[in-house]
Amino acid sequence: MSPGGANSPRPRPQGGVRLAARPDAGAAGHDPPTEAALTTTLLATDGLTVRFGGHVAVDAVTCAFRAGELTAIVGPNGAGKTTYFNLISGQIAASAGRVSLMGEDITRLSVAERCRRGLGRAFQLTNLFPDLTVLENVRLVIQARERKGFGLLSTAASHSGITTAAEAVLDRVRLADRAGSKVSELSHGNQRKLEVAMLIALDPRVYMFDEPTAGMSVDEAPVVLDLIAELKHDSDRTILLVEHKMDVIRTLADRIIVLHNGALAADGPPAEVMASDVVQEAYMGKALEDV
Amino acid sequence: MLTAILSGDTPRSRILTVLLLAVLVCLAAAPFLFPGVRALETAATICIFIVLVASYDLLLGYTGIVSFAHTMFFGLGAYGVALASTHLGRSWGALLVGTASGAVAAAVLALLIGLFSLRVRAIFFAMITLAVASAVAVLVSQLFEITGGEDGLTYQIPRALTPAFRFGELFGVNLNGRIINYYLVFAASLVLFLLLLRIVNSPFGRVLQAIRENDFRAEAIGYRVVWYRTAATCLSAAVAALAGSLYAIWLRYVGPDTTLSFEIMLDILLMVVIGGMGTMYGAVLGAVIFVLAQNYLQSLMGVAAGAAEGLPVLPLLLDPNRWLMWLGILFILSVYFFPTGIVGRLRSGR
User: Fold this and answer.
1) How far apart are alpha carbons B85 and B55 in whole angstroms?
2) What was the ipTM of the complex prediction?
3) What is the pLDDT of residue A6?
4) Which of A149, A152, A155 shows the shortest C-beta gap to B8?
5) Domain boundaries, chain B
6) Mean pLDDT in chain A?
C-alpha cells in the first residue's frame, strides 16, 4: 500500500524545504549526509518501516539527527509520529530498515539496551511508577544510569549521591517540594513534569520528548519548555520533539520534519517548512494558519 | 543501630512496632515462656514460615510475580538435608552439605524456569510453575528408593540437636538438644528475615518494586526486566530452600505432605495476603496468625463449644470439627476489612 493512498496530496519541493525521499523516488528528495555531518550524527533512521497487517504506519523514513540540534516532528493525528518514536526507542520492532545510534546499528536491540546506549524517552501518556514516591521515581532512573541496580547488600538510602542528584533534578522541574509524595497523588501537570524530570535524570545522548506539555496548564508548561531550551545548549546531545503547538515549535526547533501517513513529507528549517504552502495546505491544515 | 539492622525499613506504625516486638520476644523466649512440646513445635513452625512467607513476598509482593512453585523450592531444601543426612550419616557436615546443595539446586531450577518462562505473560508463568511443581511432587512420590515415596524419609541429626542431649535446667525448664535445635531455627530465621529485609531495601529491591509497578517503564529506563525477575526468582527460591532445610532439621522427617503439598502453597498465599503484600513485616504477622489458628483454633473452639453447651445452634457452629470453616471465614473477613493486609492497614492508620 502506498503511504497516503491515491488521494493524498504529494508534497512538491518549495523554497529551502527539502521534501523527503519517498520509497518510489530514489534518493533524490533527501540529501545524503556529508562526511562532516556524519561525525556529529547521533541518531539515524534508514528506510525505517513498520506495517500492521496491510497498514503501513511508518513508511521508509530516512532521517539523520545531529548533535546540538532540536528537531520537531510534526504532522496530523495518525501521521505516525509516536509510532516513529516507538520504532526508534524499540517499543515496536521494525518491519524493515534500520536505526543507528552513534554509528552502531541498534535495530535489533531491546528497549533497555538502547536506553543504556544513550537513547532516552519521555512518553506522551504519563508512564511512571505510581505507588512510589516522586523522589524514588527519579532515583530509579539515576540508579539505572549509574548501573547500580544489582546492588544487593547496601541499602538504597545509603547511596546518597544518587539521592542528591535526584533531588537536584526535582529542583530543576520545581517538584522538590513534592519529593516525598506518591506519584498517584500528583496532579496531571506535575506528573508531566516528573515524566520530563525522569528523562533529564537519564542524561541520554538523544532526548525524545513526546508532547511534553500535553495537558499542562499555562503556568506549568513554561517550566518544561525552559528546561528543553536549556538542554539545547549542550552540543553533545540531540533532541527530538513531537509537538502540536506551533508556538512551541517556532520557539524551540532548529529543524522540522513533517510526517504524513507514516512517510517523511518535509524536512528543513522551521521558517521554511512553516512557510511552505504545500506543507501548510497538505499536512498542517488550519494548524499553521495561527502561526 | 536498630534502623540499620532493619535496613532503614522501620515498621512505621506504633501498633505494628508493638506487635512485632511482642512476636520477637515471644519467639526468642518461647522455650521458657511456653514450655511444652506443642508450644515449641508451634514456635519453630512460625519461625520457619516467617522466612518462607517472606521469601514468597519478595516474589509476589515486591516483584509482582505469581508463582506456584514455592513449596517445590521449600521441598528441595528439606530433601537436601534429608538425603545428605541419610547418605552421609548423622553429622553437622551432612546438614551443611544438604542445606547448601538444596539451596543451590533450588536457585538453579529457578534460573531455568525463569529464563524459559519469565518472558511470557504473568499468567503463563504462573501456569508453568504450577506444572513444574506438580511434576516434581509426583516425581518425589514415585522415586521411592531415593525419596522414600509417600512415606518420606526419617533420618538422624547431630545428637546435640535432639531431646536425648540434656545439659541442665534454667528457670525450671530442662535444657536439652531440642532447645538448641529451636534456637538454631530461631537464629537462622531471624538472620534470613533480616537478609530479605535488606534485599528489598537495596537498590535491587527498588528495581523489583519498579518492575512490579510498571515493567514497561522499568525497561525504558534501562533495566533488563527479565534478568531482574529471574534474579528475584532465584533468590526467593534459595531462601525458601533454606527454610525447607530448617524445617527438615527441626522435624527430622520429610515427606511430600509436609513440604511439597499444594495445601502448603495455599497457606503461604493466605499468609502473605493476610499479613500484607510487599511489606515483609506482613509475613511475620501472617505466619503468626495462621500457624496459631492452625494449631490452636480447634482447641479454642472445643472450649467455646463446651461453654456454649445448652444454647441453641451455637455449640454446633463451634464444633471443633468445623475449625476449617472458621479459618475460611477469618480469611474472608481479613481480606474484606484489610485489603492491603494487616500491615498495610496499620501503616495507613485508618
Assistant:
1) 25
2) 0.88
3) 35
4) A155
5) 2-348
6) 84
| Cβ atoms of A237 and A68 closer than 8 Å | yes
Nearest CB partner across the interface for A115, out of B198, B214, B221? B221
Query: pLDDT grade, residue A7 (50/70/90)?
Result: very low
- Rounded to whole angstroms, how far apart are CA atoms B28 and B20? 12
Q: Does B205 touch chain A (CB under 8 A)?
A: yes
Using 50, 70 and 90 to split pLDDT, how confident is the model at A39? low
B213 — contact with chain A (CB < 8 Å)? yes
Q: What is the pLDDT of residue A9?
A: 40
Backbone CA torsion sign across B122, B127, B130, B136: negative
Q: Which residues contact B146 (CB under 8 A, 6 or more apart)?
A: B83
Cell of B4: 540499620
Q: Do A149 and B209 touch (CB under 8 A)?
A: no
Interstrand relation of B166-170 and B153-154 (parallel, antiparallel or unpaired): unpaired
Chain A residue numbers with beta carbons less than 8 Å from the beta carbon of B7 are 155
Mean pLDDT for B12-29 is 97
CA distance B313 to B17: 40
Closest CA to A227 of A256, A255, A248: A248
Residue among B137, B69, B144 at smallest CA distance from B109: B69
Does B231 contact A at CB distance below 8 Å?
yes
Query: Is residue B24 a contact partner of residue B46, using CB atoms and an 8 Å limit?
Result: no
CA-based Rg of chain A, rounded to a whole angstrom? 19
Q: What percent of chain B has pLDDT over 70?
A: 100
- Select the residue from B119, B191, B200, B206 to test the A interface by mutation, using most A Cβ atoms within 10 A: B206
Residues of chain A neighbouring B204 (CB-CB closer than 8 A): 149-152
Are B51 and B237 a contacting pair, CB within 8 Å?
Answer: no
Distance CA B280, CA B276 (A): 8
Nearest CA in chain B to A114: B222
Asked whether the beta carbons of residue B219 and residue A110 sit closer than 8 angstroms, the reply is: yes
A51-55, A122-126, B61-65: the lowest-pLDDT one: A122-126
Each residue of B34-70: pLDDT tens digit?
Answer: 988 999 999 999 999 999 999 999 999 999 999 999 9
Would you call B76 helix, strand, or coil by DSSP? helix
Q: List domains and CATH numbers for chain A.
A: 15-118+206-287 (3.40.50.300), 128-203 (no CATH)
d(CA B235, CA B209): 15
Contact state of B198 with A139 under an 8 Å Cβ cutoff: no
Tell me the pLDDT band of A285, cut-offs 50, 70 and 90: low
A237 to chain B, closest Cα gap in Å: 17
Q: Of 1.10.1660, 3.10.450, 1.10.3470, 3.40.720, which CATH number belongs to B2-348?
A: 1.10.3470
Measured between beta carbons, which residues in chain A are less than 8 angstroms from residue B5?
Answer: none
B209 touches chain A (CB under 8 A): yes
Minimal C-alpha gap between A67 and chain B (Å): 21
Q: Where does residue B25 rank: exposed (0-12), middle (13-18), buried (19+ CB within 10 A)? A: exposed
Lowest mean pLDDT among A81-85, A222-226, B244-248, B279-283: A222-226
- B221 interfacial to chain A (CB closer than 8 Å): yes
